[in-house]
């Protein structure tokens, strides 16, 4: 495992939200709970809840992230991170008004999803890129679909025009899930990534959320 770099006071600010208050960055008016999970993502004995992530979820978010880093091509990084790294990430998402949504049951956090800026330039302000991660042992319960459905609803409510998914081309299950929810494949880029000693291809899919004829001007 990679050594953990020193953390700064800024990350501690991210944990308690003071960074948002001190900078005046916008925060999204998220409710504590998005709503009940879709029926496909729950059993009568152990219902799944879909809600916004909080500080109490950081250990689980870190564990799920690191599993994807070490064992899968869902994340094209090769170095695990610590809880402070995920605290900074969660704080930055909150400050920027971007959601982080988790699926939970009485065993804990089962997966999470989020979106952020597609590109840093203002011309891309109506487009976001998202990700969805589910614990390996929870695959097949419909949790990924429930999370992505909730994220699409949140994006539409926040006025997002286009959602972009960038998926490793060999991940047929993720591509199929996105297509079932209305995403269309718009391109493939061969050998743009590398992990586990091989080249990786990248597939782009997108979902247009509204029919605006023209974009709103930059503020």
TrEMBL record:
Q: Which PROSITE patterns match?
A: GNAT
Ranges of Basic and acidic residues compositional bias?
Answer: 1-15
List keywords of the entry alphabetically. Acyltransferase, Transferase
Annotated spans, Disordered: 1-45
The N-acetyltransferase domain sits at 48-205
The organism's place on the tree of life at top rank:
Bacteria
Signal peptide boundaries = none
UniProt cross-references to Pfam families, sorted A to Z: Acetyltransf_1 (PF00583)
Q: What is this protein called?
A: GNAT family N-acetyltransferase
The scientific name of the source species is: Microbacterium galbinum
């Amino acid at each position: 495992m990679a050594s953990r770099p020193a953390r700064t006071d800024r990350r501690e600010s991210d944990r308690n939200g003071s960074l948002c208050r001190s900078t005046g960055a916008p925060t999204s008016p998220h409710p504590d709970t998005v709503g009940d999970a879709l029926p496909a993502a729950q059993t009568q004995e152990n219902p799944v809840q879909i809600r916004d992530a909080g500080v109490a979820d950081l250990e689980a978010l870190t564990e799920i992230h690191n599993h994807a880093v070490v064992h899968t091509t869902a994340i094209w990084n090769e170095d695990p991170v610590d809880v402070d790294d995920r605290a900074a990430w969660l704080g930055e998402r909150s400050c920027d008004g971007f959601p982080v949504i988790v699926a939970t049951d009485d065993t804990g956090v089962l997966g999470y999803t989020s979106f952020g800026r597609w590109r840093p330039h203002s011309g891309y302000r109506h487009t976001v890129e998202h990700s969805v991660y589910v614990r390996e042992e929870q695959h097949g319960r419909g949790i990924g679909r429930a999370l992505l459905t909730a994220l699409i609803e949140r994006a539409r409510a926040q006025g997002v025009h286009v959602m972009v998914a960038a998926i490793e081309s060999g991940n047929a299950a993720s591509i199929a899930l996105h297509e079932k929810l209305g995403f269309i494949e718009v391109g493939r880029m061969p050998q743009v990534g590398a992990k586990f000693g091989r080249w990786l291809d990248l597939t782009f899919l997108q979902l247009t959320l509204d029919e605006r004829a023209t974009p709103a001007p930059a503020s």
